[in-house]
């Protein structure tokens, strides 16, 4: 319901604009809907244990993992319990203001979703600490213990270093990233004598972002396509178009994986769903097991730079500052050639392997191309529709995302009929809410720690330190590449953007790196991080999906890792690959 509301409000404005119609107070209601999406989605993500976390926990033995689960749950329950209290304080303060939306609905009533959802999340974290009651009781008792620490502020304030180490240990052992960030924010606000309600108040900085509603809408669009048979139709289309090439099927896999990653934001659906579909086809066509697994794993990280990629929008939201804006449309334009370069370099390797292995090719048939294009016309139309609508200025990014979401639902429910409106569509939307809720809750927590970081002038201190120790812009970019790849293999891309972008943007600006070029470098490196041993996310997903040892996947994926690393270096050190289009359009 919240997703449909988030789609209806901007779409009604788009359709009504030519007639001078707009939804009264639509923008204010949309903010509240996004608030509900964030916290209800976060609640679903808690239930499904799908909050974004470090992938390092898989490296520990079972006993350490069980301990980590208990510690992570206790920290999460305690932190979210305090956030519940902070949000209650915020709601009561807003109740005193008496602000109402059009129709007479008090704002504070709608804001109750925050304490209610957070309270249920705290209980759910405690319940998931263990399969047995003693573990659950320990996790639950962490909540009053955390409040008790608040009674001895002087003692707690002197524990900055031990608390930081404790939070980091919990993070490594499986505490969700949003919990760790919120815990740091709450501790530092408390230490400095600031009210913890300030952390919850930062949520309003988040929901006031004009592009934020695009995140859940585009996430839902990707999941609607993933739950349908769109992948089969797209596979047939690319096979008819490219099957005649040497290594044609491998190139087709790259194209289909890149397209799906574009829509699903690198959330793992590509490796799990599309990989499971195309891997048997590659083996049947004569490709070796190692090459097939490496290709499916590597191709699953391509496509993050193309519209309507969720990562691009998130970076635009997070990296934008009071001094400079990083528009999502400029990032999409700048990422076009770098994204195609990465795909072309991987495809060139696939073609070469096809020639060496003498893989048989299918003959080109214009009739089959036309038939396959006609079959996949609706899915192929979605990216064209999104780009045209947005780039022509006909609709804003949020309105475009709403139109794409509605378009995808209409296509898959009423035209192709792959999804049933009341049976399978809600399942797809709930699945999308897991990712969207996890990302939005992460952003909410990040606003608190970011506010403290800015107030403490930490970015300025880092800029001065970097300028003192690194004199060359190119050395800085190389160090940035290394840092981002390491972070990208440890943390999911959304967490990496939220945590690092506010810190890196000021440093890059000091070295004269264009903010849009920086965004492309940032995302391209994080794509590479998905494949980087020992804990790249796609490596774990592929190992799980195909029941293969991680060490074998390291070997299989190495050629693709090296090729993508070379493309990332080209993107980094040849700025015109990113900025050339913007210069031609007069936007730089």
How many DSSP-defined strands?
0
Query: What is the rounded distance between the termini?
Result: 41 Å
Largest sheet: none
Mean pLDDT across residues:
84
**Helix content class:** over 70%
What proportion of the residues form beta strands (DSSP E)? under 5%
**Rg (CA only):** 24 Å
Shape verdict? globular
**What is the count of helical runs?**
29
Verbal overview:
With 588 residues, the chain is mostly helical. 76% of the residues lie in helices and 0% in strands. The protein contains 29 helices and no strands. Helix 13 runs antiparallel to helix 14 and helix 15 runs antiparallel to helix 16. The longest helix has 36 residues. The chain is globular. The two termini are 41 Å apart.
Sum up the structure in keywords.
globular
Structure summarized in a few sentences:
This protein is mainly α.
Present the secondary structure layout.
Blueprint: H1 2-16, H2 26-47, H3 62-97, H4 107-111, H5 113-127, H6 133-149, H7 153-157, H8 160-172, H9 177-191, H10 197-201, H11 203-207, H12 214-227, H13 230-242, H14 248-264, H15 269-284, H16 289-299, H17 310-319, H18 328-357, H19 366-375, H20 377-391, H21 397-415, H22 425-455, H23 458-469, H24 473-490, H25 493-510, H26 515-529, H27 537-546, H28 550-573, H29 576-584
Helix pairs in contact: 1-2, 1-21, 2-5, 2-22, 3-5, 3-6, 3-8, 3-9, 5-6, 8-9, 9-22, 12-14, 12-21, 12-22, 13-14, 13-19, 14-15, 14-16, 14-18, 15-16, 15-27, 16-27, 16-28, 17-25, 18-26, 18-28, 18-29, 20-21, 22-25, 23-25, 24-26, 24-28, 25-26, 26-28
């Amino acid at each position: 319901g919240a997703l449909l509301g988030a789609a209806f409000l901007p779409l009604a404005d788009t359709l009504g604009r030519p007639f001078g119609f707009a939804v009264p107070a639509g923008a204010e209601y949309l903010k509240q809907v996004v608030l509900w999406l964030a916290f209800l989605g976060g609640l679903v993500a808690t239930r499904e244990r799908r909050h974004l976390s470090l992938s390092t926990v898989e490296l520990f033995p079972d006993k350490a993992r069980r301990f980590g689960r208990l510690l992570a749950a206790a920290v999460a329950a305690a932190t979210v319990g305090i956030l519940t209290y902070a949000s209650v304080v915020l709601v009561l303060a807003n109740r005193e203001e008496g602000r109402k939306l059009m129709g007479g609905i008090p704002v504070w009533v709608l804001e109750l979703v925050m304490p209610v959802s957070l309270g249920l999340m705290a209980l759910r974290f405690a319940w998931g600490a263990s399969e047995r009651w003693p573990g659950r009781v320990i996790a639950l008792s962490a909540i009053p213990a955390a409040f008790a620490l608040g009674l001895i502020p002087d003692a707690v304030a002197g524990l900055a270093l031990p608390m930081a180490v404790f939070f980091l240990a919990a993070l490594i052992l499986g505490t969700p990233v949003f919990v760790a960030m919120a815990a740091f924010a709450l501790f530092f606000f408390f230490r400095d004598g600031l009210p913890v309600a300030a952390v919850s108040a930062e949520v309003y900085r988040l929901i006031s972002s004009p592009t934020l509603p695009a995140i859940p809408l585009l996430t839902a669009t990707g999941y609607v396509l993933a739950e349908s048979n769109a992948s089969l139709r797209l596979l047939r289309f690319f096979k008819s178009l490219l099957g005649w090439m040497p290594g044609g099927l491998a190139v087709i896999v790259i194209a289909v994986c890149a397209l799906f990653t574009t829509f699903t934001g690198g959330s793992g659906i590509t490796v799990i769903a599309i990989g499971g579909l195309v891997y048997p086809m590659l083996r049947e066509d004569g490709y070796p097991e190692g090459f097939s697994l490496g290709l499916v794993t590597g191709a699953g990280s391509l496509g993050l730079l193309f519209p309507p990629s969720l990562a691009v929008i998130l970076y635009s939201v997070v990296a934008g500052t009071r001094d400079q804006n990083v528009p999502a449309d400029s990032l999409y334009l700048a990422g076009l050639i770098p994204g195609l370069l990465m795909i072309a370099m991987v495809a060139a390797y696939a073609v070469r392997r096809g020639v060496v292995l003498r893989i048989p090719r299918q003959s080109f048939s214009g009739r089959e191309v036309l038939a396959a294009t006609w079959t996949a016309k609706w899915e192929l139309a979605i990216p064209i529709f999104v780009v045209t609508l947005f780039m022509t200025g006909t609709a804003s990014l949020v309105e475009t995302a709403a139109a794409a979401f509605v378009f995808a639902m209409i296509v898959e429910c009423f035209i192709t009929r792959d999804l049933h409106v009341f049976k399978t569509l809600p399942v797809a939307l709930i699945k999308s809410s897991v990712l969207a809720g996890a990302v939005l809750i992460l952003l909410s927590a990040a606003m608190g720690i970011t506010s403290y970081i800015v107030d403490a002038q930490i970015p300025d201190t880092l800029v001065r330190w970097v300028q003192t120790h690194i004199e060359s812009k190119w050395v800085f970019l190389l160090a940035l590449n290394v840092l981002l790849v390491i972070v990208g293999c440890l943390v999911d891309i959304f967490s990496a953007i939220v945590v690092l972008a506010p810190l890196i943007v000021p440093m890059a600006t000091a070295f004269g790196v264009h903010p849009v070029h920086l965004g492309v470098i940032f995302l391209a490196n994080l794509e590479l991080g998905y494949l980087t041993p020992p804990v790249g996310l796609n490596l774990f997903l592929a190992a799980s999906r195909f029941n293969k040892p991680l060490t074998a996947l390291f070997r299989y994926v190495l050629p693709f890792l090296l090729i993508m690393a070379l493309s990332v270096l080209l993107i980094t050190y040849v700025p015109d690959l990113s900025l050339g289009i913007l210069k031609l359009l007069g936007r730089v």
